[in-house]
Design goal:
Blueprint lengths: L1 H26 L5 E10 L6 E10 L4 E6 L3 E8 L1 E6 L5 E4 L3 E4 L5 E5 L6 E10 L6 E2 L2
Antiparallel strand pairs: 1-2, 2-9, 3-8, 3-10, 4-7, 4-9, 5-6, 5-8
């Protein structure tokens, strides 16, 4: 009898552990924005500044809330279309091949207009060395 209780308890504990681990994998979601820094270099002749080239992939239907970039940012849309809303200005829709510029600390938000396809953008930034690339705004 004691052996059956120990065996049952062991199976129960292992079952719970597998269930918890499996649940984490099932419930895990990928981030709606995948940002990859492709290059980061110190800018010669501009003390304390760096140039950054990055690729961002924004999942279908994703709204990227209000934020700003501490430095200058130039954006080129590779694929898809996106709504850019700069604080105090009407929203503008951009599609593949379009570009825009954001001055430092210009608060904005974006939305992938497609519910099925990601937006891919290439961003070029000139920023103070060591600053975060994006700062959320509440």
């Amino acid at each position: 009898m004691k052996r059956k209780v120990i065996m049952f308890t062991s199976i129960l504990v292992v079952g719970i552990a597998i269930g918890m681990i499996g649940g984490q994998f099932i419930n895990a979601q990928q981030s709606p924005v995948k940002a990859t820094v492709l290059q980061k270099v110190d800018l010669t002749g501009i003390e304390g500044k760096e140039g950054i080239v990055g690729l961002a992939e924004i999942a279908p239907g994703t709204i990227v809330g209000k934020h700003y970039h501490p430095g200058h940012e130039f954006v080129y849309i590779l694929e898809g279309s996106q709504i850019l809303e700069i604080e105090g200005k009407p929203p503008v829709t951009y599609k593949a091949g379009d570009t825009w510029y954001l001055s430092p600390k210009q608060v904005h938000s974006t939305k992938n207009v497609s519910e099925t396809a990601p937006v891919k953008v290439l961003a070029f930034a000139i920023a103070d060395k060591g600053q975060p690339l994006t700062v959320p705004v509440k």
